[in-house]
């Protein structure tokens, strides 16, 4: 009886069991590229491809475009850079938008962008596996839908647009389970109004951590900021211009180290000595550090004034947590009602993309640094991994569209129905061999091959139509 139960248990999780193979869903051939991720990067690639006459399949695990912006950002968020540096290709911001658009304005811009280029993502489709099939010369992208339905997309080109911020980074702090109060990542933080009158510890001194502290102050909370590393804090604007825009202009004429020296001198004059506030600066200048490590300087939007006034307290790193209490590395302890983790995000590419050449298994970023990390082998591309924001993603989106156009022209005409039938035959043979080898008998679980037409609609061949065309090959 126990052995029978064990066999039944194994069959439940066995993808090759006859019962589970009958759950296998459809296979869709996509004549254009498949793009994974419908954030700004994915939208940019889809638009650039559309301009060149390509239809593409955009797969998005969430229920909306730009899900990070729509679902995982705080209410007071605005762009930290001027709008001209955050435009996607082929369409600028409305002229009546402010220099630094709000979160809602940016979302409106992205939705208008998708409408203009008729970008219609497949929502609620989570990519579970993507791998290049050398036998058929195409990428096989497997997804799981909202109701656990499975689909496999077959495509010549695969664009990874899941970006740098796919998954929240939650550090493991000694005693987290004993804290007994709210511990929340910024992806779940919306507004300081939920913490009015409470002592809140914010972990992380990047742009998000600094702005969350300011938001808490503005809602009458009492925030403290954990600063574990050195950090460059710069004013958002210098000499009447955006700090970023001024830096880009100066780099046209001066070496990076000289521009860094200028930025630090002006910052010292405008902000004072940040080290006296517990915010030590790195040895490398802000631009050089960004170029080498991707670490972005903080653009101050008012937080520094609150630190100077004592409304925000700067604390060292955390040693351990106890019930409603935090012990810091300097030995001091303090009680808190909540902890907000402004500890950033990470790439999730290694969890679903099975290839070892383009992406690093360690951090999920392209191994080749910017500006050469956008292209891999066998029609694989990456966008949104430059550590240079939307500006870097837009540059890569244009390169990708141009390269796919070149590949199409070199490889002759687009794939016709005869090509699809050949691929379908290969799939059938491979699946039959797999089933025969495992069960000793045939099992037809997969639906007939579908294909995506020029209007992005998925169509199916009848059995008679498929067999009739096969006889012509």
From TrEMBL:
Keywords: Auxin biosynthesis, FAD, Flavoprotein, Monooxygenase, NADP, Oxidoreductase
Gene3D superfamilies per record: FAD/NAD(P)-binding domain
Keyword match Oxidoreductase: yes
Cofactor section: FAD
GO biological process: auxin biosynthetic process
Pathway in which this enzyme or protein is active: Plant hormone metabolism; auxin biosynthesis
Amino acid composition bias (Basic and acidic residues), ranges on this chain: 461-473
Highest taxon of source: Eukaryota
Catalytic activity field: indole-3-pyruvate + NADPH + O2 + H(+) = (indol-3-yl)acetate + CO2 + NADP(+) + H2O
SUPFAM superfamilies cross-referenced by the UniProt entry: FAD/NAD(P)-binding domain
The EC number(s) this enzyme carries: 1.-.-.-
Enzyme class: oxidoreductase
Entry's family note: Belongs to the FMO family.
Protein name as catalogued: Flavin-containing monooxygenase
Organism field: Dovyalis caffra
